[in-house]
Amino acid sequence: MRKIKKQKIYLLALLLPFIMFVIGFEIGPLVAMIKNSFYADNGIQVTINQYITIFKSKFYLQAIQNSLVISLFSAVVSVIIAVIAAYSITKFSQKIQNRILMITNMTSNFEGIPLSFSYIILLGNNGLFTLLFSKIGWDVFADFNLYSWTGLILVYVYFQIPLAVMLIYPSYQGIKKQWKEASSLLGGSTSSFWLHIGIPVLLPSIVGTFSILFANAMGAYATAYALVGSNYNLLSLQIASLVASDVALKPQLGSALGVLLAATMIGAMWFNGRMMRRIRRDLK
Amino acid sequence: MSYVTIDQVTKGYENQVVLNDISLVLKKGEFATLLGQSGCGKSTLLRSIAGLEDVDLGRILIDGKDITNLSPRQREVGMVFQSYALFPNMNVFDNIAYGLKMKKIKNIKSRVKKMIEMVDLIGKEESYPHQLSGGQQQRVALARALVMEPKVLLLDEPLSALDAKIRKNLQKELKRIQKELDITTIFVTHDQEEAMTMSDRIFVMNKGQVVQSGSPSEIYTSPVNTFVAKFIGNYNVCNMEAFRKLVRSTELKGNEVAIRPEVLQLVSVGEDSLDLQENWVIKGIIKDVSMTGNVLRYEVETEESVFLVDYLHHRGNMFEQGARVHILVPKKECIIL
């Protein structure tokens, strides 16, 4: 009995650096952020005015709305593409699969300022492809403006897809060949297999991936900042300008926006969880 | 009256022949077993009948209809897999009902209910596969195949993932259900005991060919070659030249002689009551005694080879290790190969 206790203490001691890290860099800032959001601009009076300011301001509400829309849209598009892409990857030989995954892994880390600049160089107003195509006479990119909502979506989807593929791909390994065989012997077509068995089995992974993509897009800052600067009204850009700009620092208001950002992510995960329990009743 | 006909079916992967010109015929309602070691082609043959593998040559007919080029869902066969292959996101009822829904068959509820009764799973309708034991999962898989009223039921080592006791139980039940529905069944196994207990007819397969077919007792008592003799019943297979030396006889012909271990008798050296008219006599020394529950197995070393001798375990351990004995080999039990 005593021995077990001692062992437990050692194990806990090993966890200590991790626990300290989590408290210091995750829980600490979170608590500070929540606390800060309930202070007035002077940092002395306790108030809920910051939230009232946000909900009365069309500007901030639009930022929240824009962020939600771009996150939802890019997450949905990326998940759909990734589900299909990951399935296609499973059809290659193991060797090619490994190579594709390596590239996917690499590109999934390709985001932020380098990604934006790559896009600017290739598809910006004076981008390589933009000029090339206009010289050739193709006008596919004539109406395309990288520094717009469409451009932002394109870049978001670009950095979301590899991550989504990486997250969904492993779950295809869980789909057994014999389920397909059983389904076909029982009279099911390929599409009825995917509709009734394949997709439901993949669903936890799809939903989980969707949550991560949504959060990823909500929090994305550098990519958007480098591409559209402050031209486009996004929640993460507004928070940054309130806590780090050199014009008007309002950290308390920034904190309140941060709390709302966190709340939407938690809300999205909760909603996903509920939806999934409804569809996959076996996973209780 | 042939119901299932496999006509000169051949199949290969790259340079390897998996099924080599196989022909066999089954009657309606027959319980047939494809028996063989892993890699002998038995599962491939079963999967070819199901349409899950294409054949290179030959035809497969069920109830007079050529199904060789039909897709699995057009073949009207049911299949049970070794790994059950239940759909994990569906409960027992939905798993069984899946095929009926796919084929848009009416009165699903009553048909599924009847099946659940038949495989003795009442009360488990709402359970999901992961909440069931292996034996229960296999019952669901069986019900799922049977509810479609297939013309032929294919069973691919359905019991080999289960432990001994449940396996014995399911063997009996499978047989009962098969008789009750009078459904033509093809069963694949590598377990000769299982094949013996369950089948009306056994097809012993080796290297992509059927080497012998017949009723369990035919296969057991008259193996046609060394492979079957060794695979089916632990036969003592002895080179004929060596055997002639052992029994000091020149009248025997053939290449090899096969003798079942349970027809041999041991007599202590010194006892005179040897019936030389009916038996061959071989001198030997008991090298080892092992016990498998109800059977005592002696390994008797002779001048030429080691013989296995089985005794029912009711007279106690009669011979000690190292004892000098005579082996009595009944002449009429010697199978010349």
Automatic annotation (TrEMBL), chain A:
GO terms for biological process: transmembrane transport. The keyword Transport applies. CDD domains: TM_PBP2. The keyword Endoplasmic reticulum does not apply. The chain crosses the membrane at residues 9-32, 68-89, 110-134, 146-172, 193-215, 253-271. Its main location: membrane. It comes from the Bacteria. Residues 64-272 form the ABC transmembrane type-1 domain. It is found in: Cell membrane. It is a multi-pass membrane protein. Keywords: Cell membrane, Membrane, Transmembrane, Transmembrane helix, Transport. PANTHER family: INNER MEMBRANE ABC TRANSPORTER PERMEASE PROTEIN YDCU-RELATED (PTHR42929:SF1), INNER MEMBRANE ABC TRANSPORTER PERMEASE PROTEIN YDCU-RELATED-RELATED (PTHR42929). Belongs to the binding-protein-dependent transport system permease family. CysTW subfamily. This is ABC transporter permease subunit. It comes from Psychrobacillus vulpis.
Automatic annotation (TrEMBL), chain B:
The complex is composed of two ATP-binding proteins (OpuCA), two transmembrane proteins (OpuCB and OpuCD) and a solute-binding protein (OpuCC). Residues 4-232 form the ABC transporter domain. This is Carnitine transport ATP-binding protein OpuCA. GO terms for molecular function: ABC-type quaternary ammonium compound transporting activity; ATP binding; ATP hydrolysis activity. InterPro entries: AAA+_ATPase, ABC_SmlMolc_Importer, ABC_transporter-like_ATP-bd, ABC_transporter-like_CS, Mo/tungstate-bd_C_term_dom, P-loop_NTPase, Transp-assoc_OB_typ2. It is an enzyme of class 7 (translocase). Keywords: ATP-binding, Nucleotide-binding, Transport. One of its GO terms (cellular component) is ATP-binding cassette (ABC) transporter complex. Gene3D superfamilies: 2.40.50.100, P-loop containing nucleotide triphosphate hydrolases. It catalyses: a quaternary ammonium(out) + ATP + H2O = a quaternary ammonium(in) + ADP + phosphate + H(+). It comes from Psychrobacillus vulpis. Its EC number is 7.6.2.9.
